[in-house]
């Protein structure tokens, strides 16, 4: 067989591609629905039109994005069976349950509420319509919880036993699966990261309009709000990321060792911010290191001992037999750094932004606005490389300690079939990404211009009664 | 009662829900070139399903996840085996789903035409292929001892499979057109009713052939009367739906068509029982309710979740449909806005 037709390699590329692509849309969906719900709450409570304008504008961006999240999500569910059917046979008894719960508890509610919210502006009483978007936010967050619980089982399998006769993992404790420590830390980490991205999108849109000198009242509010939310969310990301590190050291020590490319077990290990040369330590030319930091991240003790790759590899060989149990080090090393670095940079930009706009000041230099607009990509890229780290750091396991990735691939699917689907997804996803990006940028650039459609008599204080029929949405 | 059998029914219920609900979405999508005289007509049609299509599609996600949780071996064999067919369905659902939202965001005629066709094709392909897939499941496919399907996409396109595909295509088309008669007003409503009379005749012919063939294939099963009874009930409901539509009883016509689809899926399940994927290679390799299901504990957990959640789910879905109960007219489409 030609090597590029290896179903395993192709199936892994497809999973990586479709999952990362799906995750381009997920953070904006999760984060933005919460921010839009806050804007709408502010409107209902104060009656100030600027909040309605912001609700409608960011609601529109949320919806363009939502459609892509839905359709790429179905691919994810089908893919386990299509490309990874032996994995599905092995873990279905355990792994299927959180997915089915996600559907029954979260997706149905989410899909009902999205319809009611988009088309319900003129059909539901104002407060009920507000409750709908909060229910939408709850269901979206809930679905993230269940899917992260399913993913956590792959990182740190709990609540199961192996049925030797059937050769599969069987669920013995659903409570343990749903309270997997990895899921409990991963969940807030993911939600906060998603809120960060939504917040910087709000900042970027506001910065664009402020730089043009338009919609000043709305956009100044949006800017300050987005900056503060981003900083608060970053603190959440950092604290939960810290917890996640501690858990990772206990559940997947190899992942932490690979994150630092730490080959020798070390007490008081340092954390390198940057390495020139090969990160495996064999030919390091130059590096910037924070002393004791890795030990602190791993154990919350500056003198703590961190297990190295070599010891872990030897230990796993004794436990699981001969084989290579080390992930690809340069990927884990750099993705871990980029995740932290880009996330922190996004927060730093927001701190600078708050300073520059303090006390009603408005920056006049164009580069300030350009920075605010372009830095919107930072948390998204940080989230994506974070997932690359999480999933590549799990290798060579598909379920840590139980099943290797190479054993999970579908036996009945040929390399050609996977290649066809990989090409098909790449093409349609690529085309849709272009359309989606253009539509979002267009909606952002147009800004809250539809206000002319429904703006009523102002009473001079920025509040007004709005005729709900003017808010009706139609396809 | 055996929980695995209960879950055979629950998974079947989710697929019934999916076909009944997303079925009319597919029909509305396919009817765009037949009933949409101008852009406003098309927008009226799309808006009849606008608030609910995503909800209806969610039934597929829940059906798929329940299959995974309750029958992992069935899920694995089906999705691995019907690879290219499912790929086509996925691509179609992606095209259709984004088009509803994206269509309105462009201004040029070219843009709208492009997304109209994505909706039409994105509706027709799944409508056809779901029937092909299910017909092949009941007919049996080449499954080896490890539970792996050894055929190709083209093996699925046998006469019975294609007839099954045409049956779902026509059922969903007429279902969608009847839905339009129920949810629109004026000229469009009149034309939809007339189209449903014509397409209904073809639907009756195709579906009758499929049901008779299905029964003939399963004459040796122990519970033949159940299968025949369900198939006959589906036939009666289908003819009743056509008669009601002709008489202008839109609600009855739509309701009876929904019943037809539900009964047809139920007869498929009856034909399958107690298998879930019969093997044509060797009956000993067949996946059955017993050997494809999850452990008892998993099924217990899932039963609790389903029992607690389903009444709630049905209640708020009912509310959603009630909120959007009014007919969509050309007047409800703003002229200037896009």
Mind explaining what this structure looks like?
The complex is a heterodimer of chains A (475) and B (338). Chain A has 475 residues and is mainly α. Chain A is 70% helix and 7% strand. Chain A contains 16 helices and eight strands. Chain A has helices at residues 7-46, 49-83, 85-119, 126-155, 174-178, 181-211, 216-251, 253-260, 293-299, 309-320, 329-356, 366-374, 377-392, 405-408, 415-446, 451-454; strands at 160-163, 168-171, 266-267, 271-277, 284-290, 305-306, 397-399, 403-404. A two-stranded antiparallel ribbon of chain A has the order 1-2. In chain A, helix 2 runs antiparallel to helix 15 (415-446). The radius of gyration of chain A is 24 Å and the shape is globular. The termini of chain A are far apart. The relative contact order of chain A is 0.14. With 338 residues, chain B is an all-alpha fold. In chain B, 78% of the residues lie in helices and 1% in strands. Chain B is built from 13 helices and two strands, in the order αααααααααααββαα. A two-stranded antiparallel sheet of chain B has the order 1-2. In chain B, helix 1 (3-35) packs across helix 11 (250-272). The N and C termini of chain B lie far apart (55 Å). Classes of the chains: A mainly alpha (475), B mainly alpha (338). Chains A and B meet through helix 2, helix 3, strand 2 and helix 15 of A and helix 2, helix 3, helix 4, helix 5 and helix 13 of B.
List the helices and strands and how they pair.
The complex is a heterodimer of chains A (475) and B (338).
Chain A: H1 7-46, H2 49-83, H3 85-119, H4 126-155, E1 160-163, E2 168-171, H5 174-178, H6 181-211, H7 216-251, H8 253-260, E3 266-267, E4 271-277, E5 284-290, H9 293-299, E6 305-306, H10 309-320, H11 329-356, H12 366-374, H13 377-392, E7 397-399, E8 403-404, H14 405-408, H15 415-446, H16 451-454
Antiparallel strand pairs in A: 1-2, 3-6, 4-5, 7-8
Chain B: H1 3-35, H2 39-49, H3 53-70, H4 72-81, H5 83-103, H6 109-139, H7 153-156, H8 159-183, H9 187-217, H10 224-246, H11 250-272, E1 275-277, E2 287-288, H12 289-292, H13 296-323
Antiparallel strand pairs in B: 1-2
Helix pairs in contact in B: 1-2, 1-3, 1-6, 1-8, 1-11, 3-4, 5-6, 6-8, 6-11, 8-9, 8-11, 9-10, 9-11, 10-11
């Amino acid at each position: 067989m030609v090597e590029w037709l290896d179903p395993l390699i192709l199936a892994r590329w497809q999973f990586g591609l479709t999952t990362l692509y799906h995750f381009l849309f997920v953070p904006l969906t999760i984060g933005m629905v919460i921010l839009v719900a806050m804007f709408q709450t502010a409107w209902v409570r104060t009656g100030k039109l600027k909040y309605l304008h912001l609700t409608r504008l960011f609601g529109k961006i949320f919806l363009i994005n939502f459609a892509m999240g839905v359709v790429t999500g179905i691919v994810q569910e089908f893919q386990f069976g299509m490309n990874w059917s032996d994995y599905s046979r092995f873990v279905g008894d355990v792994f299927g349950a959180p997915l089915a719960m996600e559907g029954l508890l979260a997706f149905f509610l989410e899909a009902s509420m999205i319809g009611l919210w988009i088309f319900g502006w003129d059909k539901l009483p104002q407060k009920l319509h507000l409750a709908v978007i909060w229910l939408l936010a709850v269901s979206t967050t809930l679905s993230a919880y269940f899917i992260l619980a399913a993913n956590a089982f792959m990182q740190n399998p709990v609540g199961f036993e192996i049925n030797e006769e059937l050769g599969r993992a069987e669920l013995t404790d659903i409570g343990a699966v749903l309270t997997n420590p990895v899921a409990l830390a991963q969940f807030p980490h993911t939600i906060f990261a998603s809120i960060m991205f939504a917040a910087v999108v709000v900042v970027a849109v506001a910065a664009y309009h402020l730089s043009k000198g338009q919609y000043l009242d709305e956009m100044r509010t949006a800017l300050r709000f987005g900056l503060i939310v981003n900083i608060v969310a970053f603190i959440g990301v950092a604290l939960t990321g810290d917890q996640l590190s501690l858990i990772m050291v206990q559940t997947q020590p190899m992942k932490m060792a690979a994150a630092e490319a730490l080959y020798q077990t070390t007490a008081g290990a340092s954390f390198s911010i940057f390495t020139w040369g090969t990160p495996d330590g064999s030919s390091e030319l130059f590096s910037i290191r924070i002393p004791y930091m890795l030990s602190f991240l791993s154990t919350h003790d500056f003198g703590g001992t961190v297990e190295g790759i070599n010891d872990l590899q030897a230990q796993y060989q004794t436990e699981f037999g001969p084989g290579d149990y080390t992930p690809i080090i340069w990927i884990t090393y750099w993705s871990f750094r980029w995740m932290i670095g880009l996330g922190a940079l996004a927060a730093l930009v927001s701190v600078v932004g708050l300073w520059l706009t303090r006390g009603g000041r408005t920056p006049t230099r164009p580069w300030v606005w350009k920075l605010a607009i372009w830095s919107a990509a930072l948390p998204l890229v940080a989230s994506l490389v974070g997932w690359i780290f999480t999933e590549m750091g799990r290798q060579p396991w598909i379920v840590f300690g139980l099943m290797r990735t190479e054993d999970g691939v579908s036996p009945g699917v040929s390399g050609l079939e996977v290649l066809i689907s990989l090409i098909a997804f790449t093409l349609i996803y690529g085309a849709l990404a272009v359309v989606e990006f253009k539509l979002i940028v267009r909606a952002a650039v147009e800004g809250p211009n539809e206000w002319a459609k429904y703006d009523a008599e102002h009473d001079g204080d920025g509040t007004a009664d709005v005729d709900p029929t003017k808010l009706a949405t139609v396809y | 009662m055996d929980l695995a059998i209960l879950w055979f029914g629950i998974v079947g219920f989710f697929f019934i829900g999916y076909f009944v609900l997303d079925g009319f979405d597919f029909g509305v999508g396919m009817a765009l070139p037949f009933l949409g005289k101008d852009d406003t007509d098309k927008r009226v049609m799309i808006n009849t399903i606008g608030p609910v299509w995503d909800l209806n599609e969610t039934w597929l996600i829940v059906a798929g996840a329940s299959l995974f949780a309750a029958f992992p071996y069935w899920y694995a064999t089906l999705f691995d085996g019907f690879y290219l067919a499912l790929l086509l369905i996925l691509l179609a659902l992606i095209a259709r789903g984004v088009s509803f939202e994206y269509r309105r965001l462009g201004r040029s005629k070219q843009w709208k035409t492009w997304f109209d066709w994505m909706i039409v094709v994105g509706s027709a392909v799944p409508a056809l292929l779901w029937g092909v897939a299910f017909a092949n499941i009941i007919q049996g496919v080449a499954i080896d001892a490890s539970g792996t399907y050894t055929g190709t996409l083209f093996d699925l396109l046998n006469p019975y499979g294609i007839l099954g595909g045409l049956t779902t295509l026509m059922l969903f088309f007429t279902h969608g057109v009847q839905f339009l008669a129920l949810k629109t007003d004026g000229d469009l409503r009149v034309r939809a009713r007339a189209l449903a009379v014509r397409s209904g005749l073809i639907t009756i012919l195709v579906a009758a052939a499929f049901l008779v063939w299905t029964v003939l294939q399963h004459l040796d099963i122990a519970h033949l009367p159940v299968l025949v009874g369900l198939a006959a009930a589906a036939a009666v409901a289908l003819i009743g739906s056509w008669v009601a539509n002709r008489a202008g009883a839109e609600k009855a016509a739509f309701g009876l068509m929904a019943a037809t689809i539900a009964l047809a899926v139920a007869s498929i399940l009856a034909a399958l029982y107690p298998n879930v994927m019969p093997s044509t290679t060797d009956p000993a390799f067949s996946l059955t309710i017993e050997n494809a299901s999850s452990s008892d504990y998993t099924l217990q957990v899932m039963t609790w979740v389903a029992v607690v959640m389903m009444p709630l789910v049905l209640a708020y879905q009912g509310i959603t449909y009630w909120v959007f109960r009014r007919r969509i007219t050309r007047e409800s489409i703003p002229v200037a806005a896009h």
